[in-house]
Amino acid sequence: MSSSSLPLAGKIAIVTGGSKGIGRATSLRLARGGATVVVNYSSNSSAADEVVTQITDAKGTAIAIKADVSSVAQITKLIDEVVAKFGKIDILIACAGTMRLAELDKVTEEDYDITFNLNVKGPLFLTQKAAPHMAPGSRVVLFSTTQAHASTVTANYLTYIASKGAIEQMNRALSKDLARKGITVNCVSPGPTATDLFLQGKSEQLIKTIAGFNPQNRIGKPEEIAEVVAFLSSPAASWVSGQMLLANGGQA
């Protein structure tokens, strides 16, 4: 196949949270682009193995590695294992995240710590540990959320959008830092997307209401977000860095 049909051939990609939701869709999409994909997961080995099997059945290459990327020690282990096996990292997708919803009077220290450890500390130290093994032309993709900008955001998103605000500022600073190595850093901010994390606990009526906030009258699909990530991971995005791309169908 031509390089245009497999633009990621020869690339080693790590997708944290790669066994479910947007991470799963991204793992599959990068593999279709020719990348060797490291599917990171924290607990559900069967889900990660299913993604690997789907990739390998399609003649792609993937492995699953368990690591809790809210822990610097586990992050270091993940990066060391990838480098020991493949010798490099070309694409780092920091997709793992958590969304604990509570209004101010209900927020606990545990809520805060779990949210910021996974959503903020994780991407920061993943990038720090991976960067020495990334050559010029490599890619880092972070994740925020449209809820960090939406007028419709509700009060119970407090710690979640605070963590994503931190990611957006991290994106700005890291893009300056890693530009010296020829590495791009960008941030994708999905709108409401049909993942298990988003759908959990929501009634069908609530989902329809949320869809109604979008001018297209629907919520997004994980595969649509994965296409955005694939572009930012590709050679075509060589002059795109430090950007926050709202992937939300035009939702304000």
TrEMBL record:
Entry superkingdom: Eukaryota
UniProt record similarity statement: Belongs to the short-chain dehydrogenases/reductases (SDR) family.
Keyword GTP-binding attached: no
Pfam family, one: adh_short_C2
Organism whose genome encodes this protein: Cudoniella acicularis
Keyword Oxidoreductase among record annotations: yes
InterPro entries with a match to the protein in the record: NAD(P)-bd_dom_sf, SDR_fam
GO biological process, one term: abscisic acid biosynthetic process
Protein name: NAD(P)-binding protein
Keywords in alphabetical order: NADP, Oxidoreductase
Coiled-coil regions listed in the entry: none
Molecular function terms from GO: oxidoreductase activity, acting on CH-OH group of donors
